[in-house]
Amino acid sequence: IFGRAGRPQFDKSGEGIIITTHDRLAYYLRLLTNQLPIESQ
């Protein structure tokens, strides 16, 4: 789960860290580099 934490009126960006195994690295890199619709709740 990634999101913008902090104070929305001041913070315009956020950071996320992915911790995974080497064999799943390509999967997550594809997710990060492909354009997908934004999902929000």
UniProtKB/TrEMBL annotation:
The keyword Zinc does not apply. The keyword ATP-binding applies. InterPro entries: Hel308_SKI2-like (IPR050474), P-loop_NTPase (IPR027417). One of its GO terms (molecular function) is helicase activity. Keywords: ATP-binding, Helicase, Hydrolase, Nucleotide-binding. This is Uncharacterized protein. It comes from Nymphaea colorata. The lineage of its organism: Eukaryota, Viridiplantae, Streptophyta, Embryophyta, Tracheophyta.
